[in-house]
Amino acid sequence: MKLLLGVVAALLVFAAPARAEEQLLTLYSPPIDSEPYVHKSTTVVLKADGVGAPKEPGYVLGFQEQALVDSKDPDAKPLPVSKMMVHHFLYYTRGRVDPGPGGCLGGDFLSGRGEEHPNGRFDAAWPPEQRALYGVHNVTAAGTAPEWTLTAMVMNHYKQTKRFYVRTRIWYTTEPRTPLYPVSIGDCRHLGNGMSYDVPGGGKPGSEFVDRSRWTAPFGARIIGGASHHHGGATHQTLSSVTCGRTLMDAKAYYGTPDNIYNTIRPILHEPGPIANGTFHSDQGIPIAAGETLERAAYHSNVNLHVAAMGFWVLQLVRDDSLTACAPMPTDLREVFKPAKYDQTAPFVYDRVVPQLAKPTGSWKTYSGGEVPIGDRWFKPQRLTSKVGQRVTWNFGGAEPHSVTVANGPRGFSSNYLGQFGGTYSFTPTVPGTYRLTCLIHPTTMSETLKVVKRS
Ligand SMILES: [Cu+2]
Fold this sequence. Notes:
Blueprint: H1 2-15, E1 23-28, E2 32-34, E3 41-46, E4 58-69, E5 84-93, E6 109-114, H2 128-131, E7 134-138, E8 148-156, E9 162-173, E10 178-179, E11 181-185, E12 197-199, E13 208-216, E14 221-231, E15 234-241, E16 246-254, H3 261-264, E17 276-277, E18 279-288, E19 293-301, E20 306-319, E21 334-336, E22 365-366, E23 371-375, E24 378-379, E25 383-387, E26 392-396, E27 405-408, E28 424-427, E29 433-438, E30 447-453
Parallel strand pairs: 7-10, 22-25, 23-26, 25-30
Antiparallel strand pairs: 1-9, 2-9, 3-8, 4-7, 4-9, 5-6, 5-8, 11-20, 12-20, 13-19, 14-18, 14-20, 15-16, 15-19, 16-17, 18-21, 23-24, 26-28, 27-29, 29-30
Copper (II) ion binds at residues 402, 439, 441-442, 446.
């Protein structure tokens, strides 16, 4: 009887058609601790052991979920945005073959989540018909599955240190697929600053600040997915073909209504980001030919200051060298993730003033050149005066990362928003006024006010 059952089971196995099956894998990061109101960026290794990253070489067909949980119970609900807000997750492989053109974030970049993805669900961006055809090839030159790394920056609004895991659900297969290439299109000169730049503000009503860059396609390809990452008074970001003289995608930045958690969460640690950015999908794909030049343009309101702003695209490319130059646009390009409810006030006012949460104390000191020290959880002095046109330099000491950033004031500036260890940062104010400074890593505990007066 046992033998017979074995034979039947074997027959069933052989009877199954050879299909390129996809699996839904649930992966976990190691535990990460996050201090209250501290915006530290943490990078962890996701081992290729089937727990952190896939164990077998294969193809990543898509990301279903990138969530923050405090339990490995498979039914654990993601932590609420009101308690733990995700600034960003960035996933990279460590050395995969055939990474494609890469872009600013490099050839190992896989996927990510930004503040514009409040629920961490990505189903709509990776539809089944796409997963049946394409995947990111997850294999090293040695033929093994690569380790991954994950960089996570979260905002802990619990009053104590919170331990969490990043739960990642991916569709995966060990069957062959056509390679899919994630490509990050931005101004790569911003990479040293974590891809961010400052919108100075102080413009007339309706004035704009535009960050542009160009990229030339190394081979013919179809863009089957495009996601805008854009914040800091962001209005919309375009991707155009300079060669063909046409707009390929125009992504709106969607902001929450006044009752949205992004606008009601307290304390206000930074300027609330969009609740969604334009994200597009096309099964046919937008055709781009080898040598075609694309231009991205990220439009920001320049009325108020916006520090650590960003604008770049993440595209999903499929190589196709059969395309003719400026071939017709697809007929199935559609927007995914458009929120049901968003602020449609026109013109939208980007005026959410970020408070300086810690109050500077002590006597006013006159800046006399040299370096203003920054240490672990302190600026010294906390009250400083300088003159228009006088270059002010800060020196980063201490063992923790810090930034010097305008919370509010006449113009915006910031050192690296991820914080820096050692080294200096300088800014030369051209506009008088009171610059209320903070550290973006430690916004509730660090402050300094710089009063800039006209030259006498
Ligand atoms: Cu700090």
